Protein 1
Amino acid sequence: MSAPSLCWFRQDLRLSDNPALTAAAQEGTVLPFYILEDEEAGTEAMGAASRVWLHHSLTALNQALGNHLRVFVGKATDILPQLIAETGATSLHWNRCYEPWRISRDSQLKDTLQAQGLTVTSHKATLLWEPWEPLKADGTPYKVFTPFYRRGCLQAPAPARPLPVPSDLSLYQGDVGGTTLEALSLLPTTGWDTNLIAGWQMGEAGAHQRLETFLDEGILSYQDGRNIPSQSSVSRLSPHLHFGEISPATCWYAALDRFGFEDKNCDVFLSELGWREFSHALLYYNGTLKTEPLNQKFNAFPWRTDDAHLSAWQKGMTGYPIVDAGMRELYQTGYMHNRVRMIVGSFLVKNLRLPWQEGEAWFWDCLFDADHANNAASWQWIAGCGADAAPYFRVFNPITQAEKFDPDGTYIKTYCPELRDLPAKYIGAPFLAPPFILQGAGITLGRDYPHPIVDAKQSRLDALAAFATLKESA
Ligand SMILES: Cc1cc2nc3c(=O)[nH]c(=O)nc-3n(C[C@H](O)[C@H](O)[C@H](O)COP(=O)(O)OP(=O)(O)OC[C@H]3O[C@@H](n4cnc5c(N)ncnc54)[C@H](O)[C@@H]3O)c2cc1C
């Protein structure tokens, strides 16, 4: 049996537009494999929802590869040398990932294996532009999104066009050990994932279907509709993009070729893909993005500790329906609409004054699209300590946000069904409803739905006062 080229699948669980797979296939027989790397990831090991997604995504990839995906658990630094020794492989391909632990591990691994005579090639597949490509004229990285995207990205050479699925893929048949997908134990034993996965089709086919539906429908109202959580104007491509079931270049060119930059909806959608690039560039240049505020001044911020408030926020029991609907959407579906992510984030770090890292950690565990770069950068943005961040003094009012973005309460009632009979006027703030209205809607506050855990106005003032101490200490 001739030696195969090794193709290491990581965050690129697809056959199309997969440069590592294409390059390996051009060399001859391919051995595709995946390694569950909890040990090496350490504190950045995948959260519970991501593991559920991964299980289904790997299952789909394995099917697409005719059941020839090999899976392993452990350290890549232990597994790869064994795989090379057993197969006699002389070539290894992977697509680049950008988490700090992977970057340093990958570069060490590459040096070691190359020193042993293996040809190791890494490829660009996960981003449109490498983080080190869009640089300011003075050679330093951008800190503000608009020039990063409009100048740094759009004026750089265009991303490569997506590659087709390699034709005549010849897959290695030999036995190389490893384990089964089931043995990875990615699914919970209690069955809480049954409802979670409803409405999603994990895997490459599902990703392409999602993109097609979005291009036929959602994108037509994307610019304004993307702010209305009850509308299906957004793509919901984020978990598919995170796991690499579809490439950003495929999404980029599918939208661009059909609508062009001159179409406002398309332009805004492409710029959201640009935010994804920006977050990855921020992470690349700031390895502690997940834990340390970019604006160091925030190290002195007087955050509170309050387990009861944190728990109420996590459970969607704050007494502010738009916040509670968002947190319940997250827990029930593994997803939360972007507008609502901003509202619940602002509520946590400003009204409750709890550390943004607590929010980051909860999202990490609950989101299907939990992504080191996007999650950390977005939380820093919300907290006001990130790059190009929302100023700390801009506090989203959970009542007016509900009035503006969910005026008839369609979204709130989906996730807070106990409020279904409340008139639209009070849906964003049941505690402001007169007793007879509450009675008519069958709601007793404190029994059917919580009293607000903080006063929105007072907590905003407290947050601003806390922020002022930073200015004084600067
Ligand atoms: C507090 C907070 C935490 C977040 N955590 C994550 C996360 O862990 N993973 C994640 O993918 N996104 C995260 N986001 C960004 C954004 O909310 C999601 O990418 C988006 O809601 C996904 O839905 P969609 O695919 O329908 O987005 P669409 O509006 O259809 O956008 C298309 C794609 O663009 C990218 N994108 C859109 N907005 C952003 C953004 N602000 N930053 C970076 N990329 C963006 C995503 O890949 C998304 O799939 C977070 C935002 C906030 C405010």
Protein 2
Amino acid sequence: MRSPYEALTLAFGDATVPYLYGTDCAAALAGAVLDRLGDLDAILFVADDRVRGHADAVAAELARRVRVERVQVEAAERHKTLPTVQHLLEAAVAGRLTRRSAVAAMGGGTVGNIAGLAAALLFRGTRLVHLPTTPVAAFDATVSLKQGVNLSAGKNLAGTYFVPALIACDLAWLSTVPRTDLLTGLAEMVKNVLVAAPGLEPKLTRALEGLDADPDRRAALRALLEIGVEAKAPYVAADPREQGAALIFEYGHTAGHAIEFVSGGRIGHGEAVAWGMLVAAEVARRRHGLAAGDVAAHHRLVSLLGLPDAAVRLRDLDRDAIRAVLAKDNKRGYGPCAPGEVLMVLLDTAGRAVPGPPGGPPLVPVPVPVVMDAFETVALNALESV
Ligand SMILES: NC(=O)c1ccc[n+]([C@@H]2O[C@H](COP(=O)([O-])OP(=O)(O)OC[C@H]3O[C@@H](n4cnc5c(N)ncnc54)[C@H](O)[C@@H]3O)[C@@H](O)[C@H]2O)c1
């Protein structure tokens, strides 16, 4: 009989992680988690409050064969903190987890990161199962070993790398994500294709166009998962800590973070990264000869995200504040960068980053005024005509 799910194997350096995915296969996935983890005495089942419906079914299926201790978490950046991690660790110990137990994280990237860090710390490392329920988590965050929480000074400042035992995703879980929350994952897929897999543009275009046409979005979501994993997998295999070649997935995040931060939350992460990619393309066009056809590919794909007009979204952002955020960009320290410059991932052609210093990550220093000029071009929505 045909398996109700498909199985990929992700490599992170020498470590390998099975990734099981399918549609309407939650019970089979729960069974597979138990079969593959083998000798298991309990599961700390950490679930996002908003996926209770999906989580109840999975927890019930797991509970047929193993003791399940449930903890609900509100998925919000303000709760992605060390006290929440401690709360999970205390629940694990109070719930009599042992070194034969596992932590399951069911939710988006927020819950995945909180529970992922807890799994890394519990008994100095407990088996971790990711059950991603958002596009960001399914296509991006779980294809990464990074587990981190926020400090008062900024996002993801405390964390570690941790290899999960297994990732399992029923794409039906993703079908309840609101359209605005979908956008983040879709923008990251546009980024993955532009930087690492330009040959997948037709598949991505079909998936993005199919999302709204298909009421339950399942075929499109499956294609997006495959695009995310296919683009990112070779990079995390070779660079599991994402401090070298895999830093290309920071594409669009330099200007993007500044736009997101200065907008005070009005512009979400996905939209900001989309504008950030257009800014990066404009910088690369001017300084590294990115061809007009590749710039046009950026516009084609970003336009499929259905964003409002760039001019309307960007014109009121405080330019001095953007300059100030760029000056403190968190990629500082990865390579040489003079005061007044910012390190960026740039493309010299779609699918190929401008190299950084020999042996270093693909980050190039760009004077902040050049970034601001490119930002103004994007904000004027005049990129096509320059
Ligand atoms: N390498 C990494 O570890 C990595 C990569 C990318 C992002 N992240 C982190 O991931 C987080 C963002 O993840 P996200 O975009 O998944 O956001 P999220 O986890 O905050 O989820 C977004 C919203 O969707 C809700 N939700 C989740 N699944 C749902 C479902 N199936 N149906 C309905 N609602 C659902 C959540 O409750 C939340 O309100 C950030 O904290 C980011 O730092 C980590």
